[in-house]
Amino acid sequence: MTFSRREALVALGATGLTAACSNGVGSSNAATIDARVDQTLGSLFSNYPGTRDLANKSVGMLVMPLVTEVGLGFGGGGGNGALRVGGATVDYYSMVKASGGLQIGAQQYSHVLFFMTSEALQNFRRSPGYAAGANVFYATPSQGENLNAETTTSLAPVIAVIFGQSGLRVGATLEGVKYTRIIP
After folding, report:
1. Which of 21, 74, 91, 132 has the highest CB neighbour number within 10 Å of its CB?
2. How many other C-beta atoms can be found within 10 angstroms of the C-beta atom of residue 125?
3. pTM, two decimal places
4. Of 140, 131, 137, 138, nearest to 177 (Cα)?
């Protein structure tokens, strides 16, 4: 049996997507998500000490321990995480990301959304499917870089810190991210 290039390419893409989906990110067990959130916050605070001050000044944090993205022309990604208010988990969320454009590759990373105002947190929690938009300030710190909470809180009511990237994904994309509450 012989495969055309197109069939081989589709098979490789499907294999990559299947591998990404079966990496444990989809686990909706509350204890597993909480353990990953604790580990992710520990890593964030030890590698980027300024984020501890940011966390202390925030009214809530959505922690996504592991987001996996794969793209070949069209792409997607996702992961599960927890919303913490006052240091306690109050809800669990899934994140789904879709993209289209000139792209190829796969990557994994962690991110935390810091809600700096009560209004931003309430809008997030009341939304049936929150889509990250123009009101989010993205910070991608380099190793040892310090994020200053006084500077960043004046920029946006929601601050996204993206860290721990691994893998390689090349290209320009139009991306959309949606967060949805889940019951583990």
Report:
1. 132
2. 17
3. 0.76
4. 131
pLDDT digits (tens, 9 = 90+) for 125-140: 998 777 665 556 766 5
Nearest partner of 73 among 181, 174, 150, 176, judged by Cα: 174
Give the pLDDT confidence of 159-178 residue by residue, as tens digits.
888 888 887 766 555 567 88
How far is Cα of residue 126 from the mean position of the Cα atoms in its chain?
20
CA distance 125 to 117: 13
Sign of the dihedral defined by the CA atoms of residues 71, 76, 80, 81, in that order:
positive
Q: Distance (Å, rounded) from C-alpha 104 to C-alpha 168?
A: 8
Each residue's pLDDT tens digit, 70-95:
988 888 899 999 999 999 999 999 99
Tell me how crowded residue 117 is: count the other CB atoms within 10 A of its CB: 15
- Run of H or E residues at 69: strand 60-85
Q: Which H or E run contains 16?
A: helix 5-21
With 0-12 / 13-18 / 19 or more C-beta atoms within 10 angstroms meaning exposed / middle / buried, residue 144 is exposed
Q: Where are the domains of the chain?
A: 5-182
- Per DSSP, what are the bridge partners of residue 62? 83, 113
